[in-house]
């Protein structure tokens, strides 16, 4: 039987403005062409028309609005981008039927709007990569990057100088990517960004259309949308800004995993001040207590730096006492290292290596002690677990809702002949050690 290959959607482009805008148009078309879109020079032949506008002076704005009007009249399916995109209210007021409006250099946003307006039909005969993209993680879990860069300037970190300030992705683009991953077999979405709780700040929490509703570029809205896709949703690198409290009801409702990875890095106020840590406030222990009232099983993971310049024994003891109170489920720690280019390298009060090592050991001992007690308390309980591997001899290993891949503990199962990688099962916990659980699947 002869297979008919799907035909590609056609894109029309009206490019106005300066040479920079022209280069933007070229980049957008190059990207769309590389994805398989065709180009059209006729309004009536295009599936969607892009108008790249100029907003330099009033006459240029009028010319852009006229071009939008012409494209609407001739074709009707129009996406606006470029400098006039900053005045989206003005454009919408005049042309309420516009499909999407983006600003200058928002390539991903324009391309994403085209995907929505004129999707390319997937074809196993034509596509070199699967629809969800190529993955280095196993099929059943995927990292989902929601932003790049960071607006903070922690004194030990050089990420902002390497990657720049926070740039968030559009909420609809993230949700679309997540939906594709879930359709391709992902059972667990691991949400990452340098500072996930700041997601959307740079976009002023703009709203994007997703299916039949609007979704704000904001971590709570995004987490809700991701939770509705039916996979586990695990949040990483969440700094405890006040709005993080809004995520807890989503956990109580089972939309996202009751798991928060919060890189506290220290607890002593003077060390945190020197570190210039964001969202560092004294009331965090009260907030943790409130989160636990709402979601008693919430798992909290964090990482800490010991031996930061100027850290005294008193500061370190403060951290240990804080850990006794916070009772974090999972803890990672690092001995402070001077990273080339970090401001902290010039700070006085370098901590000798042997003192760093001794503090590191004490911290890890404390963390292991807390972890062991918490895991012991899980013996006899039934815990949702995702299967990561099977050993071919009746055993399997996976992770509970409280364990992220690579960094947290594992759940080891006996009598697991029927389990497959990616299954999510309920495990009755029979035993525990400092980091791992042992049990059997009961459903
Ligand atoms: S440690 Fe995190 S929050 Fe601080 S500057 Fe680096 S990326 Fe930003």
TrEMBL record:
Radical SAM core domain mapped to chain residues: 136-373
Task: Give the InterPro entries listed for this entry.
Answer: Elp3/MiaA/NifB-like_rSAM, Methylthiotransferase, Methylthiotransferase_CS, Methylthiotransferase_N, Methylthiotransferase_N_sf, NA-bd_OB-fold, Ribosomal_uS12_MeSTrfase_RimO, rSAM
EC number per UniProt = 2.8.4.4
List the SUPFAM superfamilies hit by this protein, alphabetically. Answer: Radical SAM enzymes
Query: What UniProt keywords apply to this chain's record, in alphabetical order?
Result: 4Fe-4S, Cytoplasm, Iron, Iron-sulfur, Metal-binding, Ribonucleoprotein, Ribosomal protein, S-adenosyl-L-methionine, Transferase
Q: Which residues of this UniProt protein bind [4Fe-4S] cluster 1?
A: 18, 54, 83
UniProt cross-references to PANTHER family, sorted A to Z: RIBOSOMAL PROTEIN S12 METHYLTHIOTRANSFERASE RIMO, RIBOSOMAL PROTEIN US12 METHYLTHIOTRANSFERASE RIMO
Q: Which family does it belong to?
A: Belongs to the methylthiotransferase family. RimO subfamily.
The UniProt function text for this chain reads: Catalyzes the methylthiolation of an aspartic acid residue of ribosomal protein uS12.
NCBIfam families named in the record: 30S ribosomal protein S12 methylthiotransferase RimO (TIGR01125), MiaB/RimO family radical SAM methylthiotransferase (TIGR00089)
What is this protein's record name? Answer: Ribosomal protein uS12 methylthiotransferase RimO
Organism of provenance: Zymomonas mobilis
């Amino acid at each position: 039987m002869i297979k008919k290959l799907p035909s590609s959607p056609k894109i029309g482009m009206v490019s106005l403005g300066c040479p920079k805008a022209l280069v933007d148009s070229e980049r957008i078309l190059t990207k769309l062409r590389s994805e398989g879109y065709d180009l059209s020079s006729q309004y009536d032949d295009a599936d969607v028309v892009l108008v790249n506008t100029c907003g330099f002076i009033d006459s240029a704005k009028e010319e852009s609005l006229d071009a939008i009007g012409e494209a609407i009249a001739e074709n009707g399916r129009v996406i606006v981008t470029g400098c006039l995109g900053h005045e989206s209210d003005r454009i919408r007021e005049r042309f309420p039927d516009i499909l999407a409006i983006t600003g200058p250099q928002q390539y991903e946003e324009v391309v994403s709007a085209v995907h929505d307006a004129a999707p390319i039909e997937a074809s196993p005969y034509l596509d070199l990569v699967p629809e969800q993209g190529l993955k280095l993680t196993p099929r059943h879990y995927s990292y989902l990057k929601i932003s790049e860069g960071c607006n903070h300037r922690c004194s030990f970190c050089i990420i902002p100088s390497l990657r720049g300030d926070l740039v968030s992705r559009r909420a609809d683009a993230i949700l679309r990517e997540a939906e594709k991953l879930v359709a391709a077999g992902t059972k667990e979405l691991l949400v990452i960004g340098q500072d996930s709780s700041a997601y959307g700040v740079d976009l002023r929490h703009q709203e994007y259309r997703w299916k039949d509703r609007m979704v704000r570029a904001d971590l709570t809205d995004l987490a809700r949308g991701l939770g509705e896709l039916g996979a586990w949703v695990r949040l990483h690198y969440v700094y405890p800004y006040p709005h993080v409290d809004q995520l807890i009801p989503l956990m109580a409702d089972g939309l996202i995993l009751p798991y928060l990875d919060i890189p506290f890095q220290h607890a002593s106020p003077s060390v945190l001040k020197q570190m210039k840590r964001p969202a560092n406030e004294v009331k965090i222990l009260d907030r943790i207590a409130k989160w636990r009232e709402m979601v008693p099983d919430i798992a909290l993971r964090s990482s800490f730096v010991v031996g930061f310049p100027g850290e005294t024994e008193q500061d370190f003891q403060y951290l240990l006492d804080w850990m006794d109170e916070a009772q974090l489920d999972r803890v990672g720690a690092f001995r402070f290292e001077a990273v080339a280019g970090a401001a902290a390298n010039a700070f006085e009060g370098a901590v000798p290596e042997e003192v760093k090592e001794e503090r590191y050991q004490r911290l890890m001992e404390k963390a292991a002690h807390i972890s062991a007690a918490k895991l012991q308390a899980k013996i006899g309980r039934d815990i949702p677990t995702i299967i990561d591997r099977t050993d071919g001899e009746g055993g399997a290993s996976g992770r509970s809702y409280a364990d992220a891949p690579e960094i947290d503990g594992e759940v080891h199962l006996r009598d697991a002949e029927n389990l497959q990688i990616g299954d999510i099962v309920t495990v009755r916990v029979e035993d525990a050690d400092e980091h791992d659980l042992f049990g059997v699947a009961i459903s």
